[in-house]
Amino acid sequence: MKSLTINASQRESVGKKATKALRNAGQVPCVIYGGDTIVHFAAPEIAFKNLVYTPDVHTVVIALDNGTKINAILQDIQFHPVTDKILHIDFIEIFDDKPITVELPFKTVGNSRGVRNGGVLRFNLRRIKVKGFAAKLPDVIEGDITNLKIGNKLYVTDVASDDYTILHPDNTVICMVKTSRTAVADDDEDEDETEGAAEGAEAPAAEA
Fold first, then answer.
1. Which residues is 4 bridged to in the sheet?
2. pLDDT tens by residue, 104-127
3. What is the gyration radius of the CA atoms in the chain, in angstroms?
4. Is 28 exposed, middle or buried (0-12, 13-18, 19+ CB in 10 A)?
5. The pTM is what?
6. Cα–Cα distance between 201 and 207 in angstroms, integer?
7. Are the C-beta atoms of 7 and 63 separated by less than 8 Å?
8. For 53-87, how does the pLDDT look when each residue is reduced to its tens digit (9 = 90+)?
9. Residue 133: strand, helix, or coil
10. pLDDT attached to residue 193
11. Which of 37, 134, 172, 208 could be stapled to 168 by a disulfide with Cβ–Cβ 3.0 to 4.6 Å?
12. What is the mean pLDDT of the chain?
């Protein structure tokens, strides 16, 4: 997974008054859970631009002003209901020997046969929840849809990997090719029907 570094200042005062003062100064109050102690810190809102406003998932190095660096991943974020400004961010500290649970974006690869024949690709999942070690997790999970015909589905089991465990039931559909008014029969299906008709036809009667 990609990693970002955020330069931040550790904060001792965590009350409402101190938090309000931070926000008024353009800072975002944050907290890191999962380690031996809970760490409170703050950083300028612009520092989170490439972390928050992107479909990608990143690990984060929180570089505190006291020289401490903490590896973490974004857990939760709160926005102002009117202005959409970032109000607060929760992080979870990550370790090399402990797996993490994240939702990775899904991306299709290839050009579906069903779509070429007029079908429509519909998504049930845009992100896939997985568990694994941060160092082995990909930036995005890719699924090949080249051979999907109209009515075919791509399941989470089709994108399984030894690098992570998928936290969805095996029968969970990621995407499928649905028919449409402009859809036409698949060439292979036409050939199968033709071959089946030829095999089932009666042989001509022998002349007397």
1. 60
2. 999 999 999 999 989 999 999 999
3. 26
4. buried
5. 0.75
6. 18
7. yes
8. 888 889 999 999 999 999 999 999 999 999 999 99
9. coil
10. 45
11. 172
12. 87
pLDDT, average across residues 181-204: 53
**Domains of the chain in sequence order:** 2-93 (2.40.240.10), 100-194 (2.170.120.20)
Q: Which amino acid is at 180?
A: S
Q: What residue type is 45 in one-letter code?
A: E
- Give dist(CA 10, CA 30) in Å, integer: 9
Q: Which of 139, 129, 131 is nearest to 58 (CA)?
A: 139
Residue bearing tokens 């992107």: 54
pLDDT band at 195 (very low <50, low <70, confident <90, very high): very low
Per-residue tokens: 81? 């209901």
Looking at residue 185, its pLDDT comes to 67
From 37, 93, 87, select the one nearest 62 (Cα to Cα).
93
Closest CA to 32 of 3, 1, 67, 6: 6
Tokens of 176: 């499928």
Helix (H) or strand (E) holding 16: helix 16-24
- Using DSSP's 3-state secondary structure scheme, residue 101 falls into strand
Both tokens of 122, joined, read: 């519909």
Question: Residue 208: what residue type?
Answer: A
What are the tokens at 85? 């400004």
Residue 155 above 90 pLDDT? Answer: yes
Please say whether the beta carbons of 29 and 23 come within 8 A. yes
In the numeric block, which tokens belong to residue 61? 């190095």
